[in-house]
Amino acid sequence: xxxxxxxxxEKLFYSFNLEDHVPNNHLFRGIDSYLDxxxxxxxLSDFYSHTDRPSIDPELMIRMLIIGYSFGIxxxxxxxxxIHLNLxxxxxxxxxxxxxxxxxxxxxxxxxxxxxxxxxxxxLFETVLKQCMSEGLVSGEGFAIDASVIKSDASKDHxxxxxxxxxxxxxxxxxxxxx
Length: 179
Prior knowledge:
The protein is an all-alpha fold.
């Protein structure tokens, strides 16, 4: 007997758990198990007004950027659209089905303004690097570079002497902790 999709009235309530629709082995589940951005708000508190309306959560912004970098989504407009449509991305960003994804222009203003002024990306990079060192994933003793030729106006007269470089081994423990 041939089936037929029933037309009729839509349900008033749905039972839907976003977690049930993202595979256990999804890339972002692995990233999320190590990513703790709880100290981010404290780090950025001086860059936000305490009297205006609430802004977009900085943790959401960083999670969105991780998605963009992980999948090569360079357009902020497209990134916002992809997060709106993709259940795994919503889950990673901790957005429910009915939660709004930030507008691409607001996202851009925060990324190129507040985040750049506060050196948030440097702070995150150093924190993740320290966590990787504490987990034994990297030693911090050496580094590798590729052979890309890039024009620059660098000068030997303006380089840092070796004793002014950061000694990562002497740095404090990471501020973001494993869940």
